[in-house]
Every structure is written in structure tokens, then in C-alpha cells.
Automatic annotation (TrEMBL):
It holds the Pfam family MZB. It comes from the Bacteria. Coiled coil: none annotated. This is DEAD/DEAH box helicase. It comes from Streptomyces luteolifulvus. GO terms for biological process: interstrand cross-link repair; nucleotide-excision repair. InterPro entries: DEAD/DEAH_box_helicase_dom, Helicase_ATP-bd, Helicase_C-like, Helicase_put_actinobac, HRQ1_WHD, MZB, P-loop_NTPase. PROSITE patterns: HELICASE_ATP_BIND_1 (PS51192), HELICASE_CTER (PS51194).
């Protein structure tokens, strides 16, 4: 690559030669065309997104300019030398990248000093990272809560910051993506105050419209590099449906062999043949269960093989995670049953196969998981093992729904006032906000600042806005929308801490009597203390697994506005969603046969949020030819489809919203469909749905009617996150119902107008409570 002049400097051939030499020392040939092109844009000072396939060398595309810069000490403004920041959505990915950079930079001596800075970094190491590391690998959570609020301690690093790497950028979607976008704007603002203007380098293997998504995420123009020149091995992708058993389930229904048991068998067979495999599972319990079954079966063949299969999931202690990652990377482990914590970008050379236990809910996630195999250019195998679920069954029998469709668009909205408000407070706490900052944070900033002053969160003095409280402003929001203290899982006999469980998942996973799996060992939960956030467990050997059952209801707190739609009504206001775990089932591990049900006495959890809802009358049901026998299915299908279509109108993600459909709701006394924001206090999505209701529900009806399936499929009315297993659903009833409803819709200008007398709401800036499950599915 010849030297080129850019915004920063003329980059000498010597530096490029040293980097290329280091790359070749690691067994990698000269960069492919797409890597060289991306590197040249970055060296010229242009932000760039590399959107090529899995195992296409995206890491090298950004490491060439990063390492070149770190090696060139002549640019140091303060003697420290240039610095770079790497952001990953998971700790595992950051640790993996740090290991790769250390290997890659070893021939370069001490010029490159990478270090991980996250919640697992020991306190005694953090000061060294701040003062001496020049390539810091972290995550958006640590950027938001740790680095930005403490920017004076990071001043020397920020002054020299040349590159910000954002890996797996497609994961930053929905409300989480909107939060990350605002955190990046805060980072850019602080860098500018320290005299730096870093170049952003983004990478993703499964992004739709990558340059558009990257520009929305960073707020900067971004060059797209998507021409993949990397060699690729053959991938065989199998769709696997477990067989029916002789067992009978609830109400005498036939029982199909579980995806968990089938995946465990496949993992066992592949391990026996020496095939290095990762099995992705949707739940932590499932990952543990698959590893236990595989270990037991491998021990029958060869006891040494049983030690070469393990589980990997969130909630492990940091040292346990690092040991498993190292064992997988070295080849010591032949098989690993993992949650999506290992989905993103982990470079495991020599991995031959991937098993996916149940459709992960998004095509982007499916291809991310499948792409973990074959990363060295060899052939690879990917197997999607279907769960006994309408969505998975449909996909197995209609492969075109997977292979002939593009990945989903990355949807986020940095201007969402419910997201922007707490970040304006955090930014003001970092440095007082001035008029010049308005352009950086977007047009909604001007309207929000007076509201935040009225709420006594900010105060204007002379020409700047100041944070007024003693509390940390960064604690106003959790960018992942979680919250609550994690529940510690403690062995009762020894007091040993086994790990943690997220507060939002504790009721369903570590309730009294639950089977808890950890590192291949089985425990029974003896007690759950919610006040102290502790679950006491003891080792046991039950022949069953446990599945929690819950109930969800929704009540109307306040109707802000409503408009007639023929005889029906369209409403917008505040609701309370109540979820309570009421019992758990004991199921045989292999067959899934229900052995019994045990009642539980756990407190309900509530989510106060904003919702849009519509009702229909009996006359409208008669006009739509909908009787009581299909009413529930028609409402449910319309609910699913409307949630699937809302991202086109509200710049949200499907996983940001929830829904409930009820044939006779106690507050409306009519058949009612609710769609609500899955975030405490609301996030503006339901409000947007209300204002565009006619266009939104018209598109919903057309999407259902135009689908070529007979009875409903994932393309129209089935949902990947339905809490009722996509039952009941009635496609034709939903079309007729929406047709009649839309006949009475007012003109668009009426539906989009703000209700007369409705006062603007203050932005919700209180720290969110743990999120609650939705009837349409849990909102992650």
C-alpha cells in the first residue's frame, strides 16, 4: 500500500511494513482487497464500516491502521503515543480480541500495549490501564458508567485517541442501540474538548444497509466496504426435526423429542468423531443440560472424552469464563454448549461444526452462530435443531424463509427523547452543556433541555447547562434496560459462590424447587431470598428439569386520549403490565414428559409503561364474520403482525415492544389488542404507533393478506417471542377483523394529531426497574 496523505499525517512505508510483517508472522498472508481498502480509508481519516462475511478477516481490516498508528510514536501529543479504543458487546469477545492482538503484536515489542477494561478487571490493574495501555478493549456499559464519567482520569488517553473500533455493530439495535449511539456522542464531545477527533472503524458480518446503520450509530459519515474478497470453505447447513415419541403431553397431545436432548446426542456423536463443535442454546439452563447429557454419554464411550465437553453461559465467575475460553481456543475442549455469550465474533480456529438448539429469533443471529464454524477456510457443518414450536416447525419445512430472505435491518433511534434525556444529564455532569453541543446530540436536544430544567435535573447558568444533583448522572439509565441487583447462587453446605443470575430472570430460574445446573453439576434450589438477592442450592441428582409457569395481565391506568374508529376506539395512555410466576412443571429430561406441577408463592412484578390499544364492538365482529371460537386467534394474530410491522413506523426493534390481546378486557369491556413499550416509563414507540395508526394497521393487514401461506407463518402472524407458543392464531380472521376496523378509521391527519389538551410528558429519567415478561414474549 503506497503512503497516502490524510487528515492526520503521511503514514510511512516503514510502519506498514512492520505491521504486515507481524501479520505474516502469525501465519496470515497479505491482506485481501477488502481489508486493504478499509485500511486505506481509515488511514486517510475516514470512518469506515466493514460489512463482509464471517471469518473474512474483518479484524485485520481495522487492526492494520490501528497497529500502524500505535507504532508511530511521532504523533504523541504528550509523550504517551497514540491510543485506540475497542468496543465489544460482550466481555468474551473483548477478551478474545485482546488475546489475538497480543499474539499479532508480539513481534513488534512493547509498542502495542493492549488491555481489557471491564467489570472483571481487578481494581489494582485499572490505574495501569488508564495510564499505560494504548489499546483499551471494553464494552459500551463500561464506557457509559466508568470511562466517560471519570474522563479527567482518562485525559491522557482521550487526548491521544486516534481510533474507536466498534465490533459486531449490528448488535446495537433498538433501545440498547439508541443508548449506545448517545454514549458515542458523549465520547466524541469529550474527545473534542481534549483536542482529539478519532476515526470510527465498525465491523459486522450480518448488517443490512451497513453504512446507514453505522451513520445513525456514530452520527458521522461512514464509508462502506462490503466487497468480500476472502476465500471461503463449503458450509453444509442442515435443518433437523426431532422425531415424535410415544409419550403424551398436556391434553393428550403427542410429544416430540426435545431439541435439548437431540442437540446433546448430536454433540456427543460429533465429539466421539473428534469434531470440534459449539452448540448454541437459548437459555442458560439449556446450555448446562446439554453439557450434562453429553458428558454422561461420552463417559460410556471413553471417560477421557467426558472432560472435553463443557457449558458456557453468563453468570459464571470471571475466572471460570476465561478458563473455558482458553480451553476452547487451544483445542482442549472438543465440545461446548453455550448461550449467545459466545455468538459474537469469537475466533476459534479449527472449529468444525455448530449446532443451534432452536431458532434464535432473528436471521442475523442464526448466521452469526453458524459463522463460528469454518473460520480457517475449511468446510463446516451447521445444524438447526427445531424445537417443538410452530415457528421452528415452519422453518424446517419452509427453508426458503431462512435462506431466501435478507437479514433484518438494524433499527435504532438516537433522537428518542426517552433515551436522549438521561444522556444529556450524563453529558452535563461530565462537562457543562453549551449551545454548540446541540448539533451533536440532535434536534430533540433543544426541546428537552427546558424540560430537564423544569424537572430540576439541569440548571442553566450563563451560557451552559449544569447537572444539579449529587447522584451520578450516569446512573439515571441502564443502557441495556436491565436493572436490579443480580441474585447470587450460593451452595448452602459450603457457602461457596457458584455464580449469579440476573434479577429479572430469578423468579423463573432459581425459584424454590428449581433445578439449577452449573459447570455440569446439578443443584436443587432450597430457598430464594429476594430481599438479600441470594438463592441457596445444594447438589442433587434429580431425573427431571423444571420449567416455570407465569401469568401476565395488563390494566389501563390512564387514557390520555382516544378517538373513534367506527364503532371501535383507538386509545393511548399509561398501563401496568403484571407478571407473576405461579408454578413450575417437572419434565423428564430426555422425553419432555410432564411429571407434575408444583405451586409457587412469588410476588408479582409490574411494569408501568405506555401503550396504544384498540377495541372492536360486537357489531364489528359480526361484520367480520368472527365468532367466539376464532375471536382469540384473530386478535392474537393481529397483535403479532402489528408488532412485527411497527418498526417501520416507530424506529424501534420488535424486541423493544410487547403485546397482549384479550377477547374481553375488564377495563374496556370489549375485545382489545394492546401494544406497549417494553421499557419502564415508556420509550415513545406506542406514542408513535398511535399517531400513525391508520398507516401502521393498514400495512399490518396488507402484510398478512399478501402472505402466500395458508394458515400463518413467521412472515405474517407467527412471532419468535410469543409467550403462548403461537397458539391460538387465525390468519383469515385477523385479515377480516383489520379490514372492518380500518373502514372506520378517521383521516390520517386526525389520527396523527396530538390529542387536544394532552400535556407533554416529562422524559422518564429514573433508573429503570427490572423488565417484565410480555405475553408476546420477554423483552430482553
Amino acid at each position: 500500500m503506497p503512503p497516502r496523505e490524510g487528515r492526520h499525517a503521511v503514514w510511512p512505508d516503514r510502519i506498514r511494513s512492520e505491521v504486515i510483517a507481524a501479520v505474516r508472522a502469525c501465519g496470515i498472508e497479505h491482506p485481501w482487497a477488502h481489508q486493504a481498502r478499509a485500511a486505506e480509508h481509515a488511514l486517510d481519516g475516514e470512518s469506515v464500516v466493514v460489512a463482509t462475511g464471517t471469518a473474512s478477516g474483518k479484524s485485520l481490516a481495522y487492526l492494520v491502521p490501528v497497529l500502524s498508528t500505535l507504532l508511530d510514536g511521532s504523533e504523541a501529543p504528550n509523550g504517551r503515543g497514540a491510543t485506540a479504543l475497542y468496543l465489544a458487546p460482550t466481555k468474551a469477545l473483548a477478551a478474545d480480541q485482546c488475546r489475538s492482538v497480543k499474539e499479532l503484536s508480539q513481534p513488534l515489542g512493547n509498542s502495542v500495549r493492549p488491555a481489557v477494561y471491564d467489570g472483571d478487571t481487578p481494581v489494582e490493574e485499572r490505574e495501569w490501564v488508564r495510564q499505560y495501555a494504548n489499546y483499551v478493549l471494553t464494552n459500551p456499559d463500561m464506557l457509559h458508567r466508568g470511562i466517560l464519567p471519570s474522563h479527567p482520569r482518562w485525559s491522557s488517553f482521550l487526548k491521544a485517541l486516534k481510533y474507536v473500533v466498534i465490533d459486531e455493530c449490528h448488535t446495537y439495535r433498538g433501545v440498547f442501540g439508541s443508548h449506545v449511539a448517545q454514549a458515542l456522542r458523549r465520547l466524541r464531545r469529550l474527545c473534542a474538548r481534549y483536542g482529539a477527533s478519532p476515526v470510527f472503524l465498525l465491523a459486522s458480518a450480518t448488517a443490512a444497509e451497513p453504512s446507514v446503520a453505522a451513520r445513525r450509530l456514530t452520527g458521522l459519515p461512514v464509508v462502506e466496504v462490503a466487497d468480500d474478497a476472502s476465500p471461503r470453505g463449503e458450509m453444509v447447513f442442515a435443518l433437523w426435526e426431532p422425531p415424535l415419541t410415544e409419550m403424551q403431553g398436556e391434553k393428550g397431545a403427542p410429544v416430540r423429542r426435545t431439541a435439548t436432548a437431540e442437540t446433546a446426542d448430536l454433540l456427543t456423536d460429533l465429539a466421539v468423531q473428534g469434531v470440534r463443535t459449539v452448540a448454541f442454546v437459548r437459555s442458560r439452563r439449556g446450555a448446562e443440560l446439554i453439557s450434562v447429557i453429553a458428558q454422561e454419554r461420552l463417559a460410556e464411550v471413553d471417560r477421557s472424552l467426558a472432560r472435553r465437553v463443557a457449558a458456557y453461559r453468563g453468570g459464571y465467575l470471571p475466572e471460570e469464563r476465561r478458563a473455558l475460553e482458553q480451553a476452547l481456543h487451544s483445542g482442549e475442549l472438543l465440545g461446548l454448549a453455550a448461550t449467545t455469550a459466545l455468538e459474537l465474533g469469537i475466533d476459534v480456529s479449527g472449529l468444525d461444526a455448530v449446532l443451534i438448539a432452536g431458532y434464535p429469533g432473528r436471521r442475523a443471529s442464526l448466521w452469526q452462530q453458524a459463522g463460528r464454524a469454518g473460520r480457517s477456510g475449511q468446510g463446516a457443518l451447521a445444524v438447526l435443531v427445531a424445537r417443538d414450536d410452530p415457528l421452528d416447525t415452519f422453518l424446517v419445512h419452509h427453508p426458503e424463509a431462512l435462506f431466501d430472505q435478507p437479514v433484518e435491518s438494524t433499527v435504532l433511534d438516537p433522537d428518542n427523547p426517552y433515551v436522549l434525556a438521561p444522556h444529556l444529564c450524563a453529558a452535563a455532569a461530565e462537562l457543562p452543556l453549551v449551545d454548540e453541543d446541540v448539533e451533536l446530540f440532535g434536534p430533540a436536544c433543544e426541546e428537552l433541555l427546558p424540560q430537564l430544567e423544569a424537572a430540576k435535573l439541569l440548571r442553566r447558568r450563563t451560557k451552559a447547562w449544569h447537572w444539579t444533583r449529587r447522584e451520578r448522572a450516569a446512573d439515571l439509565t441502564d443502557i441495556r434496560g436491565a436493572g436490579g441487583q443480580p441474585v447470587r447462587v450460593v451452595e448452602s453446605g459450603t457457602g461457596r459462590l457458584l455464580g449469579t443470575v440476573d434479577a429479572g430472570a430469578a423468579h423463573t430460574t432459581v425459584h424454590e424447587g428449581a433445578v439449577h445446573l452449573h459447570q455440569g453439576r446439578t443443584y436443587l434450589v432450597r430457598s430464594l431470598d429476594l430481599e438479600d438477592s441470594v438463592a441457596l442450592v445444594e447438589e442433587a441428582g434429580p431425573s427431571y428439569s423444571t420449567v416455570a409457569r407465569d401469568t401476565t395481565s395488563i390494566s389501563v391506568l390512564e387514557t390520555d386520549t382516544e378517538i373513534p374508529w367506527g364503532d371501535g376506539r383507538l386509545c393511548y395512555g399509561s398501563v401496568e403490565v403484571t407478571n407473576q410466576v405461579v408454578s413450575f412443571l417437572r419434565r423428564r429430561v430426555i422425553t419432555g414428559e410432564v411429571l407434575g406441577e408444583t405451586k409457587l408463592d412469588l410476588p408479582p412484578r409490574t411494569l408501568r409503561t405506555r401503550a396504544v390499544w384498540w377495541t372492536v364492538t360486537e357489531d364489528q365482529l359480526d361484520a367480520a364474520r368472527i365468532g367466539p371460537e376464532i375471536l382469540g386467534g384473530a386478535l392474537h394474530a393481529a397483535e403479532h403482525a402489528s408488532i412485527g410491522m411497527l418498526p417501520l413506523f416507530a424506529t424501534c426493534d420488535r424486541w423493544d415492544i410487547g403485546g397482549v390481546s384479550i377477547p374481553l378486557h375488564p377495563d374496556t369491556l370489549l375485545p382489545t389488542v394492546f401494544v406497549y413499550d417494553g421499557h419502564p416509563g415508556g420509550a415513545g414507540f406506542a406514542e408513535r404507533a398511535f399517531h400513525t395508526a391508520r398507516a401502521w394497521l393498514t400495512a399490518t393487514r396488507e402484510a398478512i393478506a399478501s402472505c402466500e401461506c395458508d394458515a400463518g407463518c413467521p412472515s405474517c402472524i407467527q412471532s419468535p417471542k410469543c409467550g403462548n407458543g403461537n397458539d391460538p392464531l387465525h390468519k383469515r380472521g385477523a385479515v377480516r377483523l383489520l379490514t372492518v376496523l380500518l373502514r372506520g378509521a378517521p383521516e390520517e391527519r386526525v389520527a396523527e394529531g396530538t390529542a387536544e389538551g394532552a400535556a407533554p410528558r416529562d422524559p422518564p429519567v429514573e433508573r429503570p426497574a427490572p423488565q417484565d415478561p410480555a405475553v408476546e414474549g420477554r423483552v430482553p
